[in-house]
Amino acid sequence: MTENPEIDAYDARILAALQQDGRITMAELGRRVHLSQPAVTERVRKLEAAGIIRGYGARVDPAALGYGIRAIIRVGRTEYARVVQLVEKTPEVRNAYNVTGDDSWILEIAVIDVSHLDAVVTAFCLLAETSTCIVLNAVREDAPLLPARRDSIKPPIRKVTGR
After folding, report:
1. Per-residue pLDDT tens for 72-81?
2. What is the pTM of this model?
3. Coil, strand or helix: which one is 75?
């Protein structure tokens, strides 16, 4: 990975378009962001080399593959390596986050049914105390991520007092 390049408006539009459709051709991407195909190809290569674009992949619907339940498992404090080892051998775990707070881990899983959910949760219960939530509806997933800008952060609201 090289030093991160300066991200300009063209790069931001390229990132937005690629996050929306990773299979877009360089010619179409160039048309959308108003750059030539060679120019957009070079910018994409630089974003890849800098590690900003980590890869490309398909977004798959778990329900279409037979996974009727999506859930979040919160795992309490336990030995880090044991959780990592169990996560690596549990294909139902889609995302695993080591976090701060009362819990040490947040796991996103996809399972076929309630008995499958019970089997996966039980494996993690043997390591630490767990808490499980079933996902009812996803309001936002895979939202595009654009370059961070401090000037877009709104200042906190200050209380106005009578003094």
Report:
1. 999 999 999 9
2. 0.79
3. strand
